[in-house]
Design a protein that fits this description.
alpha/beta; 2 domains; 7 strands; 23% helix; elongated; binds zinc ion
Length: 167
């Protein structure tokens, strides 16, 4: 493949193969981290992504995966920029992302409940992704990763991760 044979639309569709390393059911479109795709010249593509939770180590993996994928498609130069403005929030997650998270056993962020302010006060009510019970308890503000909290369902007794709200 040589210059001119790829388009923003084509690159956009290729990037669906880049997954969140922590939640492999979500790709970068689901996450809402892809800000722009620009063709700088015949050989160079610039991809702008926005970090999710600050300091999330997943972003380095995502940036490397984007570079590797586009190089493998024959694009000679790939720049990956991180843009902090406007900041990413969990509202950036696509509607499909919510369904995929739940199917994966992770409770999706509850809209209208910014956990930043609730961090040190009472926990939000998070329905169990397994049995949908709202009778759940916060076990830890930090689950398997910093962007998730650990809950346990009081009905089916299963622990589960909750993808914390951020806005
Ligand atoms: Zn349950």
């Amino acid at each position: 493949m040589h210059s001119g044979e790829w388009s923003v639309e084509l690159i956009h569709s290729w990037l669906a193969a880049v997954k969140d390393p922590e939640i492999p059911v979500l790709n970068i479109h689901d996450l809402g981290v892809l800000r722009s795709i620009e063709m700088l010249d015949a050989e160079t593509v610039r991809i702008t992504i926005t970090p999710t939770y600050s300091g999330c180590p997943a972003m380095n993996t995502i940036a490397n995966d984007v570079r590797r994928l586009l190089k493998s498609k024959g694009i000679p130069k790939v720049e990956v920029l991180e843009s902090l403005q406007p900041p990413w929030t969990t509202d950036c997650l696509s509607p499909q992302a919510h369904a995929k998270l739940e199917a994966f056993g992770i409770a999706p962020p509850q809209t209208g409940s910014p956990d930043k302010t609730a961090l040190f006060s009472e926990a939000v009510t998070v329905p169990c992704p397994q049995c949908k019970s709202r009778n759940t308890q916060l076990i830890s503000q930090f689950g398997s990763t910093a962007c998730k909290a650990l809950y346990r369902c009081s009905d089916c007794h299963e622990p589960f991760d909750y993808f914390k709200c951020l806005r």
